From TrEMBL:
CDD domains: RF3, RF3_II, RF3_III. This is Peptide chain release factor 3. It comes from Cellvibrio mixtus. GTP binds at residues 18-25, 85-89, 139-142. Residues 9-276 form the Tr-type G domain.
Length: 525
């Protein structure tokens, strides 16, 4: 038997949020290096990298974008870190949002030359919904960067979170010589060309020391003045404020140079929350509860092209999973025996014997598991907050071969259960409409329908701007609404009534005309 309380204290489950190109992939491979998960940090995106196995989609390789995401577990010091990778491309943001429901904190990567970018702002909004604690790494200090004070201001003003610098960059670009830690009064000296190694930590004690003067050269006075100013003008790090999601500790460094990453990781394992309690419709579930529970936040197909399997990713919320245990699949009201869950050691899948709250396990899915499903050791619970977002882009599917209707329906059903697309069946005709949050999602759907279900189809534009899920307590009014708006109504993949609005104006007029109907922009799984 494992000691659950002791194991929980070690766990840190997080994801990285960033704008594309800020350095998420690069820092991921360095984190794995620090975790000794890989000896030499190869390229995560490269062919032989630890992700190579999940790089299943030719389209993905051709485009050099990572549309799949995976889970990596690595040890660091006496901690066990679970890193949930999220697709960087904005067309897959729904997937990212859902992954953010499964973590306890996030690392925000910011490109020092660019500052806060759009995607970061959006992801930050999602984190804010659950007050997720955020640790910040300002990256690429080995390149010409923006003024560090300005970057902190931007984080505070644009992201509306208090920034507490833990360390401070000493120069940038060619003049980048290291970082200064406000709390230890130690300079960590940057050495170039050590990106693929675990560099020695070369320290200079004291900003005012002779050694520091030598390192900083002609900039010494300017840098000391700036640090004095920053010390007075910024907030001290406050653990409670960080854990409440109101303050972010800020580290500077270069992921590519694997510098500043150690300090950031040390801060992370020290401060980041252990697995947190999770809400269900019934009650709050504490991680230390003896009985097992968890929810599915993601389903991924073709992790291994040879097996054509689909893996359902489960965040364990309480108790312990052990191999061969029985779980209740709450939605189906059925007990299932899970003999072969997988874990994700640094990108490699392997069988797990035991996993605890905070860990992610993968269940082989033969079509009975959906995003949002709750599994327990008997209790009927439903974890809250795994959203569907109303799509913004729509296409009508027309089959090239009408005899393939069955395959098409099966494919669409599976793809929508995985969250790869959303499907709508207008109630007035036999059309099939697919909806997506980003345009690239359609390409994935087309590719997979063709590749996995042998369905070739034409994806036509359709005059739908947005969708809203509709509910009404008053049965008579609901009938009237259905009658009057039939031409714009559809059922989604789960059979929920949906209004497909041809325009924003139409949507607001319809809402005005039917004040008793609730129009939702998100729907829980
Ligand atoms: P992602 O899109 O956020 O995953 O970003 P990547 O990790 O792929 O990085 C984007 C580009 O920036 C790549 O060419 C990296 O080599 C480069 N890069 C990442 N970190 C650094 C850094 O610290 N310094 C410099 N100079 N380049 C970096």
């Amino acid at each position: 038997m494992i000691n659950l309380t002791a194991e929980l204290a070690k766990r840190r489950t997080f994801a990285i949020i960033s704008h594309p190109d800020a350095g998420k992939t690069t820092v991921t491979e360095k984190l794995l290096l620090w975790g000794n998960a890989i000896q030499l940090a190869g390229s995560v995106k490269g062919k032989r990298g630890p992700h190579a196995k999940s790089d299943w989609m030719t389209m993905e390789q051709e485009r050099g974008i990572s549309v799949t995401s995976s889970v990596m577990q690595f040890p660091y010091k006496d901690r066990i870190v679970n890193l949930l990778d999220t697709p960087g491309h904005e067309d897959f943001s729904e997937d990212t949002y859902r992954t953010l429901t499964a973590v306890d904190s996030v690392l925000m990567m910011i490109d020092g030359a660019k500052g806060v970018e759009d995607r970061t702002i959006k992801l930050m909004e999602v984190c804010r919904l659950r007050d997720t604690p955020i640790l910040t790494f300002i990256n690429k200090m080995d390149r010409e960067s923006r003024d560090a004070v300005e970057l902190l201001d931007e984080i505070e003003n644009v992201l509306k979170i208090t920034a507490a610098p833990i360390n401070w960059p000493l120069g940038s670009g060619k003049e980048f010589v290291g970082v200064y830690n406000f709390y230890t009064d130690v300079i960590h000296v940057y050495q170039q060309g050590m990106g693929h190694t675990i560099p020695d930590d070369i320290q200079i004690k004291g900003l005012d020391s002779d050694e520091a003067t030598k390192l900083l050269g002609s900039y010494a006075q300017d840098i000391r003045d700036q640090i004095e100013f920053v010390r007075g003008a910024t907030h001290q790090f406050d653990l409670e404020e960080y854990l409440a999601g109101r303050m972010t500790p800020v580290f500077f460094g270069t992921a590519l140079g694997n510098f500043g990453v150690r300090e950031m990781l040390d801060g992370f394992v020290e401060w980041a929350p252990t697995p947190r309690a999770r809400a269900t419709h019934e009650r709050l579930v504490e991680p230390a509860e003896e009985k097992f529970s968890g929810f599915i936040f993601k389903i991924q197909a073709n992790m291994d092209p040879k097996h054509r399997d689909r893996i359902a990713f489960m965040r364990i919320c309480s108790g312990t999973y052990s191999q061969g245990m029985k779980m209740k699949h709450v939605r189906l009201g059925k007990d299932v025996k899970i003999a072969d869950a997988v874990t994700f050691m640094a990108g490699d899948r392997s069988a797990v014997d035991e996993a605890i709250a905070g860990d992610i396990i993968g269940l082989h899915n033969h079509g009975t598991i959906q995003i949002g499903d709750t599994f327990t050791e008997g209790e009927s619970l439903k974890f809250t907050g795994i959203p569907h977002f109303a799509p913004e882009l729509f296409r009508r599917i027309r089959l090239k071969d009408p005899l393939k209707m069955k395959q098409l329906q099966k494919g669409l059903q599976q793809l929508s259960e995985e969250g790869s697309t959303q499907v709508f069946f207008p109630i007035n005709n036999n059309d099939i409409v697919v909806g997506a949050v980003g345009v690239l999602q359609f390409e994935v759907v087309a590719y997979r329908l063709k590749d996995e279900y042998k369905v070739e189809a034409i994806y036509e534009p359709v005059s739908v701007t947005t969708a809203r899920w509709c509910e009404c307590d008053d049965a008579k009014k609901l009938e009237e609404f259905k009658r009057k708006c039939a031409e714009n109504l559809a059922l989604d993949g789960g059979g929920h009534l949906t209004y497909l609005a041809p325009s924003r104006v139409n949507l607001s007029l319809t809402q005005e005309r039917h004040p008793d109907v609730v129009f939702r922009a998100t729907r829980e799984h």
